[in-house]
Write the structure tokens for this entry.
Amino acid sequence: MKIVFTTGGSGGHFYPIVAVAEELNALVRERNLVKPDLYYLSNQPYDEGLLYQNDLIYKHVAAGKLRVYFSLENATDFIKTLVGLPQALRLLYSIYPDVVFSKGSYASVPVVMAARILKIPVFLHDSDAVPGRANLWAGKFAERIAVSYPEAAEHFEHEDRVACVGNPVRSDIRIRQTKDAHMHFDLASDVPTILVMGGSQGADHINNTLLRSLKDLLARYQVIHQIGKENFEAFKQIAEVELEDCEHSARYKPMPYLTTLDMRAAAGAADLVVSRSGSGAIFEIANWELPSILIPIPETVSRDQRYNAYAYARSGATEVIEQHNCTPHVLTSEIDRVFTEEGLREKMIEGARTFKRPDAAKVIAQEIMRIAIEHEAS
């Protein structure tokens, strides 16, 4: 049995594939099945270490971005996709998998197109409340479609093929580490802790707004702040100057990025999360059952995050601050409200508990295996 995974772009596309591969490997062990060959086809490996750990064999397929705005790069990227199609056809023909699982994005287009030509079953998963263009196109012929939000199902023509399963989260991130979590960051266990994160690259607006709020916030809270690797040193130096005369400066813990261990400990220590609203972050926060404040990337840059944030907010688990409204005063006021308004934190925790789908990766892995077994037998 052979299974191909494909996607590209951000960690929000890549990490759910790792979560599904983990569950597939667990399913094989649990049922004493013959281990399938797992392949990852994309324009870049993203994280070679995680591919290796989960027995995913990487194969390169060229792909170009699908931009909706005018750019001279559209022409060169269209050529990349044209080059990628024969590459994908050759690879899929030589591998001849029993199913192709796609998380969407521009890098999946040549592979999914090749699977269509070769009549290989395609199984899609879309992370966002409004599906991406690659998945909407592939949804016209995909055998099965999994979505993270109920709202996404109505965007596909064949709703009978769609199931809402949530967004897969890796097993080593899904459960937060509460034991010794405060000690991991040298924090007090009796002071409320806020985890601020903006994705692996950080988020300049959130970082700068937090900086201007820090002195006020540190009088009442501790802050674990994932800044992003690129601007970490410069930002840390500015923060040190800003907090030079602050008696609670030790309550601020800036980090360039959070390793898996850091992330689990940060989630275990946190009483509130302030974050962007990528679907990966939302489902991690929901699995941790933590209250949150989401600050989506503006719709002019990315429509996905705003729709995701409000879809999650309907569960009662989060508060949403639009970026243009996110001033130091507004951010501080919303944080204080979460901690002081009677019953609000409990309502948000219950909303997250209701919203989370901890079995998403397992459900998808089981369906992939079913399709693969049927195809292999035919």
Remarks:
- The CA atoms of residues 229 and 256 lie 5 Å apart.
- The radius of gyration is 22 Å.
- The chain has a mean pLDDT of 93.
